[in-house]
Q: What sequence folds into this?
């Protein structure tokens, strides 16, 4: 049983009041709150274990290293990677994608080669490719979306050519809540021998991911969006590709031998992990993934999907309500009449409700929708139907003020 009231007790911040009102936190797409077990695991490591990993012969260093490498194994199991050498710790989805753009770009992309993105990508899956474009004149092609906020899959095959080298696609849209048919996209790309990078920033917290079953070539997600700490994320990559890619950054940890004449690199995954890693955050991330696994995705999905469709139905009873996208999963973007998204978000905040407003780092998508921004309510496993009702009532109140 999914005991929501007990689950809420695991998240201390949910007891806060804002302007004297109970906090209703509906900005989980931006970042999630942390359960006490994550905070305590990290505090415990700072209090009792802290030492730099990998290089030490002393007890604490070895203990910290064990925790850090156990965290890598937890991530491996969470996404069912074949081996932990395919799990690279980064600062987050953004760094993971930049790593691939830079390193895969250097290894495999030449002037005139093509990369396929989609109209619903977050800036972090657009700009790294444009930065690469400044160095190598790659061509960026964009898969369009339909008016109901889904990928126009029928348009995808025609975007491939014999110069296509990579497809980069978000699994779940952070604006529209669309869950893209990732397995189909990957199958299509592979039938043309093109690898696929999956941006799983919004997918990892809400649906089970099995990289071997998906057969994706790269997959990125952020710890802070899945109840873990900030500043830590994951890049999964197929060993075969990672082996052929040059290091992203240089420094300690990523080397085998260094001399002024010649430097050799460490084995995977360390080749891509220059410098001291955030080994306390990896412990926190592992604890967060354990927390999610203990609740289980069947229960999490049942709860979040019921909550999302209930909220969507209730919102649609409000006159002037426009919802953008299908809200398949935990994300509802909307505008109400002529009320500016910023005004609506600010007034909701005064009522204790935290939502996000603006372009959500997806300006090309806003251009496609012909709007400047939306209000976005995004859910996590600890949100309730009472909170959804409070959101709807608060929007009604704001409407009356206008
Ligand atoms: N991709 C998507 C779909 C996102 O929603 C986000 C964050 O909102 C990112 C990438 C970037 O994540 P981060 O800022 O944690 O690197």
A:
């Amino acid at each position: 049983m999914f005991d929501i009231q007990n689950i809420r007790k695991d998240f201390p911040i949910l007891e806060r009041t804002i302007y004297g009102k109970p906090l209703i936190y509906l900005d989980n797409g931006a970042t999630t709150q942390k359960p006490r077990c994550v905070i305590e695991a990290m505090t415990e490591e700072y209090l009792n274990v802290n030492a730099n990993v990998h290089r030490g012969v002393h007890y604490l260093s070895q203990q910290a290293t064990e925790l850090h490498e156990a965290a890598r194994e937890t991530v491996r199991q969470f996404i069912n990677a074949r081996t932990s050498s395919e799990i690279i710790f980064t600062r987050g989805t953004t760094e993971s994608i930049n790593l691939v753009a830079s390193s895969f770009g250097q290894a495999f992309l030449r002037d005139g080669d093509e990369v396929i993105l989609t109209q619903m990508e977050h800036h972090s899956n657009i700009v790294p490719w444009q930065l690469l474009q400044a160095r190598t004149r790659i061509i960026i092609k964009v898969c369009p979306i339909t008016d109901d906020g889904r990928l126009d899959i029928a348009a995808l095959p025609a975007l491939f050519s014999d110069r296509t080298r990579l497809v980069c696609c978000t699994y779940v849209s952070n604006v529209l809540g669309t869950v893209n048919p990732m397995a189909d996209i990957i199958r299509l790309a592979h039938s043309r021998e093109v690898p696929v990078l999956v941006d799983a920033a919004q997918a990892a917290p809400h649906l089970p991911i099995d990289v071997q079953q998906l057969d994706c070539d790269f997959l990125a997600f952020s710890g802070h969006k899945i109840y873990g700490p900030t500043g830590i994320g994951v890049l999964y990559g197929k060993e075969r590709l990672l082996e052929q890619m040059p290091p992203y950054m240089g420094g300690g940890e990523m080397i085998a031998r260094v001399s002024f004449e010649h430097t050799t690199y460490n084995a995977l995954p360390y080749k891509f992990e220059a410098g001291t890693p955030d080994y306390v955050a990896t412990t926190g991330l592992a604890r967060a993934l354990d927390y999610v696994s203990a609740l289980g995705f069947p229960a999490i999905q049942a709860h979040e999907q019921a909550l999302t469709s209930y909220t969507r139905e209730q919102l649609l009873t409000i006159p002037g309500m426009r919802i953008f996208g299908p809200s398949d999963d935990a994300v509802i973007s909307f505008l109400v009449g002529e009320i500016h998204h910023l005004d609506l978000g600010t007034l909701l905040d005064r009522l204790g409700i935290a939502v996000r407003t603006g372009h959500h780092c997806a300006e090309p998508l806003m251009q496609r929708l012909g709007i400047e921004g939306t209000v976005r309510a995004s859910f996590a496993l600890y949100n309730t139907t009472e909170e959804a009702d409070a959101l709807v009532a608060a929007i009604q109140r704001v409407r009356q003020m206008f």
